[in-house]
Records
---
Amino acid sequence: MLKLLKLSYLNVKNIVRSKESILLIIGAFAYSIMWVVLVQIRSMKSFQIIDHTSEFGRFLFIVILYMSASILRNDIRANITKTLFTGVFTRIEIMFSKIISLIMLSVFVSILVEINCLLVAILRYNKMGINEFLSLNHLQIIITYSVVTFSMGSLMILIISIAFSESKNMLFIILFLSAINFFNSALVVKVFREPLFIEKISIYAKTPFYIWTDCTTSLTSGGANIYGLLIAIFYGVVFLTFSAFIINKREIK
Amino acid sequence: MEGLDLKRILNVLTLEMKRKNFIKNKVISLVILIPILLLLLIMDKSTDISSVVITTIPYIWLTSFCFSLTQEFENKTDKIIFTGIFSRSEIIISKLLSFCMMALVHFIFYEILVVIFSIYGGQGTSNLLNIKTLGNNLYAFLIYAFTIGSFILLVSACTTNGIFTGIITYVLYFDLVLALLSQALWSSKNETLKCVIRNSPFYNANMGFYHLKYNFNQSMVMLISGSIFLIATCIIINKKNI
């Protein structure tokens, strides 16, 4: 068990410290800072720190997809799947370590969101100050982003366990999901303004894509969406079960 | 950049086109689009098909352009292709030309689709098929493929990683940066900032393509930035130790 824990820790450490991830994380912070610097006034309501997490979250969505895809893809790219899945650990144990890696990654991502909040508070020191950062509901932010990361990462793991390589498809999926997330935020705002609209998209509103965006957006509009978070966890568990099942059955060349 | 002979470039372009599955991939990517369009039409009769196609085409291009150069690095064929009889600049230019060929294929597909749907919708085709509209659309397709393509080649030459190239291009040209820049244009009072944003390729590329219209100023921005990206790519790839 301790060995598995160490394996998953090393996996996360490698992913976070890879050149691409660091560049993407820097890019996410740069994007967030650009929103603070370039966009001066915001329509209707006054600026708050929590509003910035949704802008940061858009970029973070791509970072999450890339990093969670790397959990399994790095092994495939380095051609060590044969060694990994036929070694001392059973395949289920390896998948279990991947899940622990995913949970560690989600905690890491939610810490990034917290750092972003602190950064915004410092950049707008004369308007907001540190007090506003301290008065944020940190528990809600951390739980929401951890759950969303976990759920999204489990979908990526499922996709990779089916596709196993093909980087072209991987790019397509990452871009597709982030574009969907971008357009969803408009839908979520529309539902928030006119609640009757949700009946028109009721089927779509139950898919994980919508729920992820809904969870992160509801942070900015008063409180976490507990119901959505539970569904997101449920989806995550289902995806992971499927991927463990597929990895267990498939032939590893 | 010496020795840029048109005939040699055409030769290497035909080699690029003869690549396995070149045409097949292009056709498949378009065939996938058709059921989605039909589904949209069934859901809502008033859907504007041409604008849906125009917003999806950049994504298709993005995912296929990004692997044109990086697949050489990933399949370890870069040694063969960049040390053969063709100079490295010629290879890069042929890649760019193959992007333009793809833009041409998609342009024809787009026009056919628009005509079919306008007949289906009961509108006339006279204002779609005159030479001015066709020329204007073709111009927008080509200029967009040129700028985006040379930017993608530049990033692929630097990173040699297909997925990463795609992500960088997506971030710098697509939804994320467009949301940021249009908010900044709308809210800022700083005139120099506004001028810089209006004259940056990152803002113009997709904005112009979605409306299928580049005015003179925008075309100049696109052409100049595209050429700068292309020259930078050639310099980097010539300096690169393969």
Note: DSSP finds ten helices and no strands in chain A.
---
Amino acid sequence: MEAHAAEHDHAAHPPAANASSGVDARVLGMLLFIGSEIMLFGSFFTAYFFVRVVNGYPWPPPEDHLPVFVAGVNTVILVTSSFTMHWALQSIKRGNRAGLQAGLVLTLLMGTTFLLTQIAEYARVGFAPGDNAFATIFYCLTGLHGAHVFVGLTLLLFTAIRAFRGHYSPEHHHGVELSGIYWHFVDVMWIVVYTTVYII
Amino acid sequence: MARRNPFHSEAEAFRWLLLTIAAFAAVALASLLGGWPVGLPVWIVVTAAALWWYLRPLPDDRVPQAAAHVGGPGEKRILVVANETLASQELLEAVGRAAEGYKAQVLVVAPALNTKVRHWASDEDSARADAQRRLDGSLARLAGMGLEVRGEVGDADPLQAIEDALRMFGADEIVISTHPEERSNWLERGEVEAARERFAVPVTHVVVDLDADATS
């Protein structure tokens, strides 16, 4: 029995590798994530490119109107939420728990406002995903981004709950860091989507 | 070779966001002023600039590392780094020459050479086992020469393996053994020259032609 336990112990704890140049698991995970996101968004942008540039489809069609101003205000809200996210992390790094909590709550509120405004605009925009190629690409790109915002908000919610329960410290704030990275990524993608779909 | 990673930290990601805002503001402005014939070139330029910035290798700002001499004036520590040529006669003779006249301690490091795919998947068990097998053969022959010798399997990157070893073993000399130039990956990548630049420890390079040894 003891021999078995010792054997099991050995298997559970392999000797530490000496490979300091090996690929860090977190870096590898993030690279795989970025790769999958590039392929996901890339497939939709490829469809956008073919519809608009290759086929010369009018963007938007004369009968459809994009809510550029509202989406612009929404963009400002989302970009501002990245600043509050950055503030939250900087706060906990300095041991300022109130700053962390306020930053996370503000980020959550602004992210939620963005998502609700987006949903409200879907109801008012006047065209459905199946109406034409333009509408399909519009809903796919903005909807895909909206799904990412939802995931980001979920991460932020759990991060905020933990922050209010006393988790995180100047030395240990990896959860806030990861949520922040994801949130900035979501913002970057929105800037690309907003510029290509609404502005150009 | 280190490169910038926009997702390395929240601060990096935030900086990337600010750069994206600036870049796409320029693209949007160009498109509004001149349509897509102006916006597209601006987009290509900012994208190329961003790719260049993030993909270019970071400068290696590490200073040459010197290992402190350990022991009395008559003692010498020799670090031997090799892989397939570990048990060759040329390497054993070179180590013997380096140890001549000293009370020498020898540390043999065998980098666990691995394929790219296995390296990225952190699957290095077989590479380490192969390196350990070669190391065992070499250690037996060096011990037979009357040297105080021990060995370890090191990082797949020979420079990293040397750096790791130097932290624990203050070597007075490094002996690196490679295949001849036409079949040596290490020489092709300039590992020996890089070791001379990075480490302020004398580096002796031993070239071993295993094919010639086998036919002679």
Note: The interface with chain B takes residues 17-23, 25, 27-28, 30, 34, 79, 82, 85-86, 89, 176-177, 180-181, 184-185, 187-188, 191-192, 195, 199-200 of chain A (CB under 8 Å).
